[in-house]
Design goal:
The protein has a six-stranded parallel β-sheet with strand order 3-2-1-4-5-6, with helices on both faces. It contains ten helices and six strands, in the order βαααααβαβααβαββα. Helix 1 packs across helix 2 and helix 8 packs across helix 9. By secondary structure, the chain is an alpha/beta fold. The protein folds into two domains: 139 residues, Rossmann fold (3-Layer(aba) Sandwich), CATH 3.40.50.1000; 75 residues, DNA polymerase, domain 1, CATH 1.10.150.520.
Amino acid sequence: MPIKDIFFDIDDTLFPSSEFAELARRNAVRAMIEMGLGETQEKLHSMLIKIIAKKGSNYHNHFNDLCAALKLKKSSRYVAAAIAAYHNTKTSILPYPEIPRMLLKLKEDGYGIYVATNGDAIKQWDKLIRLGIEHYFEDVFVSEEMGEEKSPSFFRKVLKQIKAKPEECIMIGDREASDIVPAKRVGIITIRVRRGKHAKGKSTALFDVNNLEKLPLIIKKIK
């Protein structure tokens, strides 16, 4: 049966999310120090990473919690400086070099292209827009709006919405647990991208790749 639809994760699949997040966080704590906070960059960065690990990357008050942990009575200027520096870093994000041409090729070949990702819907849309690739996708499915993170149920809902059969679809992502396993359980073909902080470890995907430059050729092999 021919492949008709392709789902992409965003982070460390379409752009180097891990690298961006690290740069943005270091820029944020540096801005707090430049605002007059008398702490070292490494201490602040270490504390921030622990807060993120505990509260999750979609938590909205990381810098507030960091200032609370430092027992600062007047923290607004430090939080504002951190947030400004973090968001200013977003102006530098770019997709992986092969992504725009690859997406264009898939569109020209007639495939339906979608995003299937966990996270906050506005944040994920913000990434796609800043990357300049939002118009390639026919629809974007985000866990916040779907009511659950990527799971067999998540993918069944997606398939129902686009009226597709699982064997006609491919899911492409960097994480074994959230991108590959749940998609496979409903019969979707999977491709694992070995990039970012989840590049290592066991893979049960049909194909493992280091980049997506040759994805159109791989899809032809699957067909």
